[in-house]
Amino acid sequence: MMLSGTLFALRLLGPTLGFLLSSLCLNFYEDPFYDPGYGTKDPRWIGAWWLGFIILETRRNKITNRATEGHVESHETFEQEPNFDLPLFRRSSKVNGIVGYYVLLPKYMEMQFKQSASKASLYSGPAGLVGMQLGILFGGIAIRKFKPRPRVMTGGIVIAESFSFIALILCMLITCPVPEMTGTSSITQPDFNLQNDCNTDCLCTTKVYTPVCGPDGKSTYFSPCHAGCTGYNKTGKKEYFTDCKCVHNTTGHIITGDASKSYCGFECQWLITFVVVLSLGKLVSSTARVANALVTLRCVDPEDKSLALGALSGVFSLLGKELFITHNKS
């Protein structure tokens, strides 16, 4: 089982390297030969998402597919074996329930913790996947050393998955305060009015989000237009708008002043805690991966073990990941 644990861990090496490559590529602008005039933390930044595909395509090896004979009798045996079907249903249901969370995790971290797309990809990818690799290896070592009975293994699976569930709940509770947009009571309001007396005649649009920070250092405005700015200046790398008639000073009064071209300072110390809890949840949950495979293999005949693992992976992808993607497209 140490070999199985090593193989499962190596399967995660690809996604880990993929997230690292994504983090690297997103540091470059969509057009690497063009300087947009703003950095990776600006909401208008679009990283070179396409660059990774080109790099991987140049390294891809051609694989010759070989036809394989069907195993009709084996498939019929699987369909009549509840001890094989139930773990399959459980794993597919689990993936269908949480795959969306992991797929959108980089975007969640980018918005919740105000990280750049590159850093969000770095934190959400390798941080969690390394924990999963270690968990799989630890699980394989433990099974090889202690050789637990099937009932003990299934109990360990329940405990590991329960810990993962608790970790996900804790991650939902670890949040940063939502920065308020001046002119609204919450940045998450579905309907808000950013117009006031000082920018009524500016005909501002909300189609382009270009946040600026007022002179008080904490008031963020949707755009320079909504801040009532009429001038622009640049000193070195610092860009700011001038003659802004809707900005607030430190006492909360509306004045005419300057606004910097960025979010206001955002301090949140919960990012590391979030990553640690998420990684621990993945680590503990992954210790059950080898046990899951063992339980599945013990439900089929020795000659059908390879086919069982293949069928498990195929149905797992079809009913888990693909079902989630199809549901969200509809």
Would you mind describing this structure in some detail?
The chain is mainly alpha-helical. Helix content is 52%, strand content 8%. It is built from twelve helices and five strands. The strands form two sheets. It has a three-stranded antiparallel β-sheet, with no helix packed on it. Strands 1-2 form a two-stranded antiparallel ribbon. It is elongated. The chain starts with a helix and ends with a helix.
Q: What are the SSEs and their pairings?
A:
Blueprint: H1 2-11, H2 13-25, H3 51-59, H4 72-79, H5 82-103, H6 105-112, H7 117-124, H8 126-146, H9 150-173, E1 212-213, E2 220-221, E3 231-235, E4 238-248, E5 254-260, H10 271-286, H11 289-297, H12 305-329
Antiparallel strand pairs: 1-2, 3-4, 4-5
Helix pairs in contact: 1-8, 2-7, 2-8, 5-11, 5-12, 6-7, 7-8, 8-10, 9-10, 9-11
Structural class: mainly alpha
Number of strands: 5
The geometry reads as: elongated
Instruction: Tell me the strand percentage band.
Output: 5-15%
Mean pLDDT: 77
